[in-house]
Amino acid sequence: MIEVAEGVVDTDAVLDGFQAFVSQLDQETAAFVFMAGHGIQVEGRNYFLPANVPVLKDRDALAYALPIDNLLSSVARATPAQSIFVLDACRNSAIDKTLEGAGRGMASTQAPGGCFIAYSAGSGEYALDRLTDDDPEPNGLFTRHLVAELQAERTIYDVIAATRARVIPEAEAVGHAQHPAIYDQARRAYFVDGLPRRASEEQGPRAASIEGVGVVIAACDRYPCSGDTLAWPKRDAARLERVMREMGATVAVAANPEKQDLLDICRTMGEAEMRHLCFIWLGKGQLQEMQACGIMENAGCGAALLAGKSGLPAASLVSHSDVIKAFRPESLMDDGRKPAPLSLFLDIGLEREPLALSTGPHDAELPLSDLPNDFLTKPRFHDVSLLAATEFSQGKQADAKAQASSPFVTALVNALGRPGIRMVEVARLMQQEVLNLTDNAQSPRLFATRDAGSRIMVEANLSQSGRAGEAKSA
Question: What Cα–Cα distance (Å) separates residue 142 from each residue in 11, 120, 131, 262, 393?
Fold first, then answer.
């Protein structure tokens, strides 16, 4: 283990310590890096500020700062068996307000493949050094709980999730928003002691709850006609299923389903008694006649091409209107029951694919451009929000096999850790996260009816937030 001495730690001391640390890494080594101190973001890039960094009035001062991504990359290049970074960046008092592009807290970051990164606060937030001026704890809010949760036989994900469950209500009790964030590109469960073993199914404390929410996750990892297998969808489906089940949701996962089978699953979930419904599409997609469409594996695709047809068969495309109608079948609407609010998260690009059909494969009853309106004559389309992974005419970031998760899914997981915020705020947070993670190449777009944007899908877990409520009332 390499340690940098406490006290005045300058840039050279940190770099020397890191170089010595990295030199000892190999494929049999488990790397664990913890850094605490001042941290800032400048134009979306994160910097750690050692003690000798002067007041940041201009960019020359950044020569003393350490780019976090450089440190991450140096460890990743050593290819250790597992890599864990935990970064506790407190509020920085050394930033001059005139430094253009600087922001407090740290920006989102895409972890190198195989790495797990945890930040003590979410994108754009800063971490608390102390709860009050007379707080006797020597450590900041995040680190004090992290130390209490660290155990060799636990996964780092469980440790950070439990730490987050403690941090959020305590910060909220003093009027501060701090939501520790996770950027997980690990290819398996990483245990604190570095030893491989099977992860426990035991659930720890949680700060947020989606109890009473019905979730359908569709993961299509085979792209029709090309024969390619996508790296992310099934991994992301497993990750989201675990997170959402732990938060109390009812979850159904469909892996490479046929179109009708998927719609039947949505119909079954829609007929259940749920306070909120959620649909997540992971895979390829396109914009077709102003409909957001997922592209499904379908045996008829190859036959269509062999027959000289230029487009995908109808069974290969499932539109957002198809999904909404499945969640809200005629039988439910005819009974006069008010359908539960519905949120769609589509990890697709909204570009027009060259293999688009000239005629729509669906009933184009609800184009994206109309979603912000109330449909008084179409009650099935009330209270719907749709968040697509890109803006119009954008393609989704390439499905890099070195990465274990999609930027959109990473942003969604972190958004689920922020209870009590409206769907429009979820969309704003996810948009900023994805922009940071993709170097501004991909910007999610929200479409929502007027009655959906103010909906709250993720609630505070009452058992964890009681202390915060007591502190506020006091």
Answer: 24, 6, 11, 41, 40
- Residue type present at position 96: D
Within the chain, all domains assigned CATH 3.40.50.1460 are found at 11-184, 208-460
Q: Between the CA of residue 216 and those of 115, 253, 259, 319, 345, what are the distances in Å?
A: 28, 6, 14, 15, 10
Q: pLDDT tens, 407-458?
A: 999 999 999 998 988 999 999 999 989 998 888 889 999 998 888 888 898 9
Query: Which residues, other chains included, contact 206 with Cβ-Cβ below 8 Å and sequence gap of 6+?
Result: 161, 165, 246, 247, 461, 464
Q: How far apart are CA 364 and CA 348, in angstroms?
A: 18
What architecture is the 208-460 domain classified under in CATH?
Answer: 3-Layer(aba) Sandwich (3.40)
3-class secondary structure, 427 = helix
The answer to whether 233 and 296 are in contact (CB under 8 A) is no
How far apart are alpha carbons 444 and 434 in whole angstroms? 7
Q: Hunting for tokens 């892996």 — which residue is that?
A: 255
Residue 182 bridge partners (DSSP): 118
| pTM, full prediction | 0.84
pLDDT digits (tens, 9 = 90+) for 224-233: 656 678 889 9
CATH class of 11-184: alpha beta
Q: Provide the strand spans (E) within 185-235.
A: 208-209, 213-219
